[in-house]
C-alpha cells in the first residue's frame, strides 16, 4: 500500500482494520480498548506517521500555552535549577509551567501524565528513560510531544536533552582509582524504576572491572535520596570488618549526609575516607569539607529541554537530541588514601 | 431587602443593578468589565453570600480532583517538605497536585492562579498574605476555595494554616539579646510583595526597640534568598566600621551562605560573630558550624492546609484557620558575644 502524504484517521482505520470510532477511543480513552487492538492501532499510527492534530503547526493554534513537567520529587533541590531554567525559557515564549511529582513511582508517573494532559498541557518534560509500558503506549497513542532529561542514550525514537549517567559515574570512579583507592564502596539511590540510579551503579562497577585487580568494590548500598539515609549508610559501611578508603555516592544529598555523619562519628574526611558526590547542587559547597562531585549542567540542560519542546509544539521540525557532557569538580572531600 | 437563602445569579444582578450577562462576565472574564462595575458586583456577591456553584457539596460533584499550589520558588528546598506533606495528604483523598511558581512576583502569581483555574484546579494553596488587588478580586469573584500558608493573622475572611512570622522573628531576636548581644545586624529577604520577609524584619526591629538601649540594630540588608547573596551580604556587614556580634538571617539559605563565606574569610562562627537562621530545613545541619534557627512545622502545616482545602471542597463547613507555633532549635552558630 502506498503511504499517504497526510495520513487521516480513516487511513489509520483501514490499516489497523478497525472503525474510526475505535481509533478515537484508543487515542483518547485507551482503557476502553482491548490491548491487542490498541497495539494494532499503535502500529498503524507509527507505520503511517499519523498525528492526531495533523502536524505541529496546526497544533500551535490549539495550544493552551501550558507545559507540564513531571519530576521524581520536590523534596530536595536535586531538580531545582534545571527546572528553574526550563521555566524561565518557557516564560520567554509566554508558556506557563505546571509541575507534578511522582515520588519515584512509575504508576504515579503515569497518573500524573494523564492528569496534566487532561488538564490541557500541550507537552511534557519527563525525567529519565525508565517508564512503564502503559505509559509509553499512552504517550505514543496520544502523540504527546515530550522531551526526556537527566539522561541520554542514542535512541532516535526519544528526544533527549540530557547526559550519560553511566559515563559520568565511570569517569568519577576512574578518578578515584587514579588517586590510589583500591577498597571502594558505593552509596547509591534505589535503582528499581530509576535508570539514572541504576546507570550510575553500572558505571561504577564497569570502571572497577576495567581497572582490574587489586581494585575492589566492597559493597553497593541502595537507599532513598535523603541526607539521613546517606548518613545511615555511611555509618553502616564504616562498621564493616573491611572499611573502604573511598565511598562514591549516587548523588550530593547522600554524600552530604555521609560527610555530616562522619563529623558526628569523629571520622575525618578525606583523611580517613574520601567521599564523592553527583549533581553539584548548592549543598556540595554548604557541607564541610566541601564535596568533590560530578557537575551536571542543569541550567543549560533545562534551557535546551524547553527549546526542544517549544520546537516540537510550534513547528513541523524533528529536532535532534542533545547530549551534555559532565565534569568532575575537585574540592576537599577526595584525596589519596592513607598510606 | 430580605436576604435569599439560596441566592441566584438573578439575585446578584438585582442587587448589583447589572444584567446577569455582566455578572457572568465579571466572574469569568473580569478584564472585560469596568472596575467600578466589578466592585459593585463583588459587593453584591459578598452581601448575598452567592457562590457560582451553589455550595460546596454541589461543587464536589463537578470536581476535577486536582488542586494547585502556587509557591514563590522551586529553586531551593524552602517549601519542599511542606509541599510534600500537602501532596501526600491530598493523595490519600485521590487528589492530584499541580505546582506553579511565581519568582516572588505578584503579577506572575496572578497569571499562575488564572492558569491553574483555567486548567481546572478545584482549589488552591497560596503562600503568604501579600497579594495584588486584582488577584484578591479574582479569587473573590470566582469564589475560588483556597488556603493561605506560611503566615498567619487573625483575619476571619482568609483561611490560614500557618504561623506568625513577626512573633517568630521577635522570639529569636529576644534570645539573641538574652545571650548578651547588643550590636545586631540582619540579612533579610526582599520585603517588597513578601509579607513573610517584611514581618520577620518588623519582628526583629520590634524586639530590639522593646529591649531598649544599649541594644542596637546596626543594619538590615535585604537580598534575594540565595546562599551566594547571603555570603555577599555577610562579607559586606563584616567590612563596616562597626561590626555586629550577631547576624539574624531571614532564612536558612541566607544563614548557610553567611557561614560558608565566614569560613572562606577566616572568621570563626560563633566565636567572632553569631549567626541565626529561619525555617530549619536540611541545610541547617549540613552547614558547619550547624545553625541555630527557628523551626517551622512544615510537615504539620502542609498536612493541615490539605485537610482544610479538602474540607472546603467537599463539605459546606466553614473551617477555622490554624495557627502553628514555631520554636528555636539551638545548635552551634549562636553563642554569647566575645567578652
TrEMBL record, chains A, B:
It comes from the Bacteria. Pfam families: LacI, Peripla_BP_3. Residues 7-61 form the HTH lacI-type domain. GO terms for molecular function: DNA-binding transcription factor activity; transcription cis-regulatory region binding. The keyword Cytoplasm does not apply. Keywords: DNA-binding, Transcription, Transcription regulation. InterPro entries: HTH_LacI, LacI/GalR-like_sensor, Lambda_DNA-bd_dom_sf, Peripla_BP_I. PANTHER family: LACI-RELATED TRANSCRIPTIONAL REPRESSOR, TRANSCRIPTIONAL REGULATOR. This is HTH-type transcriptional repressor CytR. It comes from Granulosicoccus antarcticus IMCC3135. The gene is cytR_2.
